[in-house]
Amino acid sequence: MRRLKHLLRPLPTTPTNNAPTSPNPPPAKGFLTIGGTTYIDPHGTYPLTHHLDGSATLIINETDHYITVVTERDHDYGRDHHDPPPVPPARGTQRDLVLAPGERAETWRGDSVRVG
């Protein structure tokens, strides 16, 4: 009877050939444009440099992933930046800017752009 129960119990689940083997999401496909630089099939985090003339930086998300503009946190604008943004954010009030696939935005804030 013990062997019969052993034979009839369900098999443990095993990944199929089509299932991803890594817990990390697949890399983005498409183009990410930050200012005048375009990245093909980006993955990871990219620096966001601010223009010395104070103009906004254009970010275009032509990928199939969401991207996040990571905002400045706990910066003293008088010492850390050459040109502070037009209106410095109050500490702790800024949220990261998230762009869906196909969206674009101009920003004066941010330290980097994170894909995924």
From TrEMBL:
It comes from the Bacteria. Residues 10-21 have a biased composition (Low complexity). Residues 73-84, 103-116 have a biased composition (Basic and acidic residues). Residues 1-29, 73-116 are annotated as: Disordered. This is Uncharacterized protein. It comes from Streptomyces tubercidicus.
